[in-house]
Amino acid sequence: MIETDIIIIGAGPVGLFTVFEAGLLKLRCHLIDGLPQPGGQCAEIYPKKPIYDIPGIPEILAGDLVDDLMKQIAPFKPGFTLGDPAIEIQETENNHYIVTTKSGIKHKARNIAIAGGLGVFVPRKPPVPDLKKYEGKGVEYMIKDPEIYRGKNIVISGGGDSALDWAHFLADGVANQVTLIHRSQSFRAHPDSVQKAMNMASEGKLKLLLDAEVKAINGNDHLSEIKIKSKTEGEITVTADNWLPLFGLTPKLGPIANWGLKIEKNAIQVDNATDYSTNREGIYAIGDVNTYPGKLKLILCGFHEATIMVQSAFKRIYPDKKNVLKYTTVNGVNGFD
Questions:
Q1: Quick check: 34 pLDDT over 90?
Q2: Which residues of 149-188 are buried (b: 16+ CB within 10 A; e: fewer)?
Q3: What is the pLDDT of residues 78-110, one digit of tens each?
Q4: Distance CA 211, CA 245 (A)
Q5: C-alpha dihedral sign at 174, 223, 229, 164
Q6: Which of 135, 236, 254, 290 is a Cys-bridge partner for 228, taking CB atoms 3.0 to 4.6 Å apart?
C-alpha cells in the first residue's frame, strides 16, 4: 500500500501545483490519474495551444506549462500512479482514506484532493457509418501533435473555437490543404476567429464549406476519401488523409459521482469561504471539478484553491502544530532528501 500525506486525484496543472504548495509545508503527495502522463487536458487534448492568463507569463504552450510545473515540483519528489484511474474511496476508523485504482493499487492518506478537472472527456462523435473502423487510421477527435498533419490533406468539421483555431493553424503552412466543413452559416466561435477563417478562405488558404456535412468516409487500411452533402453544391467527394470531427468533448464525472460527495451540475460542491472542503471531512475538491458561487474555471483560480486547501490539510495532519507562513523569497524552496 502506498502511504502519503495527501492523495491528489488528477495530475493536471492544478494537481501538480498542489504538490508544490504542500511541499512548502513539508507534506508529501501522491498523484493518481487515468491518463498515461501528467498534465491533464493540457497534455492530452491541447499541448500545442497557447495559454495567455498565467500571471507573469504573457504566453506559454499548454504542454510547456506542464513541463515547467513538473520541474517546479521535482524537489518534493511526488509519487505517481498513472494510466490507472481512481475507482473507490474507503474511510478507515482512524480518520484516514484508502483510494483504490482500477488495477487494484491502494493508496492511504489522511487527506484527499480531487483535482480531476472536468472529469473524463468523451468526444462527441458524428453519426457516420464505419466511423469506428477509421478511428486512429485517419479519424481523430483531438490534436496532440500538429506536425503529423504536415503536408497532408486535412478535413475539419465543426463550428466552435477549437475547429476554427486548428483550421487557422494547420492552413497556415502546416497542411497541404485544409477544408473546413460546418453544417450551417453561423458559427459558435468568437467573431474574430470566424472573420479570420473567412479571410483565409478568400485568400485561398482555406477551403470553406458551409451548410454541409460529412455523410460517409472510405478507404482501405486508412482513410482516403470523404463524401460530403452540401445544400448548395449537392454531393461532393474529396480526398483526405485525415478527418478531424471537432464537435467538442463531453465531460463526465465518472467514478467521482459514486464517492458520497454533493454534486451540482456535474461538479463537486465545496466550501469556498474556508478551504474548498467537500461534505466529507478530509476530502477537498479544487480546480475545474468543483463548484461554488462565483466559480471561474481558470487554471489560475485552481492554483489559488490549491494554496488554501493545503493549509487546511496541514491542520488535519498536525492539529497541535502551528503553521507559520513562510515566503519563498526569504526561505527559498527546500525539497525533500
A1: no
A2: beebbbbbbbbbbbbbbbbbbbbeebbebbbbbbbeeebe
A3: 999 998 889 999 999 888 999 999 999 999 999
A4: 15
A5: negative
A6: 236
Residues 6+ apart with CB under 8 A from 272: 292, 293, 294, 295, 305
Could you tell me how many residues make up the chain? 337
- Cα–Cα distance list, 216 to 36, 97, 220, 246, 279 (Å): 33, 50, 14, 16, 49
DSSP state of 141: S
Cell of 79: 509519487
pLDDT tens string 143-169: 878 999 999 999 999 998 889 989 999
**Separation of alpha carbons 12 and 288, rounded Å:** 10
What's the pTM? 0.71
In the chain, which residue ranges form alpha helices assigned H by DSSP? 13-24, 41-44, 62-73, 131-134, 161-171, 191-202, 299-317, 328-331
Query: Alpha-carbon distance 23 to 6, whole Å?
Result: 10
DSSP 35-103: SSSTTTHHHHT-TTSEE--BTTBS-EEHHHHHHHHHHHHGGG--EEEES--EEEEEE-TTS-EEEEETT
The answer to whether residues 179 and 149 touch, using CB atoms and an 8 Å cutoff, is no
* Location of C-alpha cell 479570420: 196
All domains in the chain, ordered by first residue:
2-121+250-331 (3.50.50.60), 125-247 (3.50.50.60)
